[in-house]
Amino acid sequence: METQQAPPPENVVGSDLCVLVVEDDEIMRLSLEDRLRLEGITARTACDLASARHQMDKGDVAMVITDIRLPDGSGAELFEDISRRDPGVPVILITAYGDISDAVTLVKAGALDYLTKPFDLTKFIAKVRRNLSQIADTRLSADSLGLIGETFIPGSGVLGKSPAMRRIERLVARLAEVNSSVLITGESGVGKEVVATLIHQNSQRASGPLIKVNCAALPPNLVESELFGHEKGSFTGATKRYIGRFERAQKGTIFLDEIAENSMDIQVKLLRILQERVLERVGSGDPIPLDVRIISATQVDLDEAVRDGRFRSDLYWRLNVIHVHIPPLRERSEDILYLARMFVQRHAAEMGNAVTGLSTEAEAELQLMKFPGNVRELKNILERAVALCDGPRLMAHDLLPLESEPDEASPARKSPTLRESIAVAEHLTIQQTLVQNDWKIGRTASSLGISRKNLWEKMKRHGIEKEG
Q1: Which of 69, 117, 200, 220 could form a disulfide with 253 if both were Cys (CB 3.0 to 4.6 A apart)?
Q2: 461 has a pLDDT exceeding 80
Q3: Into which CATH architecture does domain 163-327 fall?
Q4: Does residue 89 register a pLDDT over 80?
Q5: What's the predicted TM-score (pTM) here?
């Protein structure tokens, strides 16, 4: 007897987001598809790796649920594909008991979760709906980040494609429901302000103001007035009432960059605001209730600053309710080419430039660079290169600073180490062999004399992905 399928309920969370189920067991595949559709969730299926890749090429899949073992490959290979080409798509793995260790490894690498057969369908649907709801609810405009026309989805790759940055994006999504203070740490240029902006835009306070303050840039004699405001006549030159940064952030978020640069006197006043949620303008004894979320950032080791007596421990623990550490670019090399390609496209569009991308030699040059200035340095290098490039693709020499362009009077560029030279050679060999083999992974791996898995790992490490 044929089962009548109910029409999808109206306004079902995730009904406009497509879920791809990849499962070679026909009964299970159809069972999962039918249950998803009965819940009002758009679903498509694939029975093997090849058809799953074909479905992913359509570009409308919001979530993938895949068995680890497939007839022509594995869920691990599909996850690698998605991590490289569609890092914003979460992957849930279905595994038999004997393959749990493989699933755990993939979750550590960035997969969303895994389910062990047999599993409860009700819990399965709850997990899917919860994550689709999170995706739907956290779409936001990224115009202020220069990503015109794009949206932010947890794990979408706005910050990078590395597991570390995907974890940070997922954390940003989880912070949507809370108002806790956030401390962002990391070296200069890693993107602390970008993460703070995403947290605000992805929060319940997104309709309120985001007030950004660089504490290191404030004149020492005006810090208190700038942060908390002042009344007319409260000090020489105070000719009228001034509303401070905290008060301007009411119903929104204040971002205190370089928080460690504040004096002990200001730290005491910040502590009171965090404890009592009130402020007093300079020259006034009237408390003003505050409804402000505080996000702070620093490149200083605050634990060491506390030990040295340069930062109050009680303020530190008030600020450090939720800690987000952004690793330097050199520790997530897979982000270099990913971000570089994004910056080239963005700068070319902004400048109306005909530059279409990076040459293989330029990509190899980028991977040799140390980037002490992190993502900010990478962005600036590419902005200058796009502005001055006289060809359709950036070449290696376009990435060098003007003063470093070779001439008879300038010193020779430092020779690369043996390890760096080997890395460049490996990158170029893999890229060229992929092109020669029409980007067929199996054929390329065979030509190189390595396994498919080894090739995938090397491509990920070098940031190699098919263009177009």
Answers
A1: 200
A2: no
A3: 3-Layer(aba) Sandwich (3.40)
A4: no
A5: 0.61
